[in-house]
Amino acid sequence: MRHGSDGSAVIIRLRAAGGLLLVAHLLLVASLTLRPLDVPWVTAPNFEPLAGIEADLALGPARAARRICEGLLLLAPLGVLLPMAGGRLYVSPVASLARTALAGTLFSLGIELLQTGVPGRVVDVDSLLLNTAGVALAHLAVVPMGRARLRRREERSPGGGAVRRRDEVPQGSTPTIPRVGIAP
């Protein structure tokens, strides 16, 4: 594989960096969300969508804004890191968004389920909704533009970004065999 101006080498490096950053981010999220809380009382689990946000809005816009921002930003980096770790340039934007949002939802659901065994933590469906929205928004804000830029870079590089060994020679098209009828 050629290095330097070859677009595939950049993709490989971005993919490795994405994987490392993904692991680092998930470790940070685990340390923030799965640490026991020392509180005198614990609220009841919230299984009604948007009920917690409505309660926060009743306490004031500052508290509601803080809660919404925390929920949106906690897993938002996954919206960029998951596609980056996947390393695919040519993929449907809708399929990429759906796949990334689903993965973000599953990560958030896993965190919520793990929190049931952590003292001081309770399940909150609003966290699941906000985390998923944060992943989707981050994906929409960064990934399509980043992929387009990388595709343009790959098209400008010599060889069109094809990964080949130095000793490999293009062989041409695959030969076909004409159809021969079977005797009666």
TrEMBL record:
Residues 23-141 form the VanZ-like domain. It holds the Pfam family VanZ. The chain crosses the membrane at residues 12-34. Residues 151-184 are annotated as: Disordered. The keyword Transmembrane applies. InterPro entries: Teicoplanin_resist-assoc, VanZ-like. The keyword Transmembrane applies. Keywords: Membrane, Transmembrane, Transmembrane helix. This is VanZ-like domain-containing protein. It comes from Streptomyces agglomeratus.
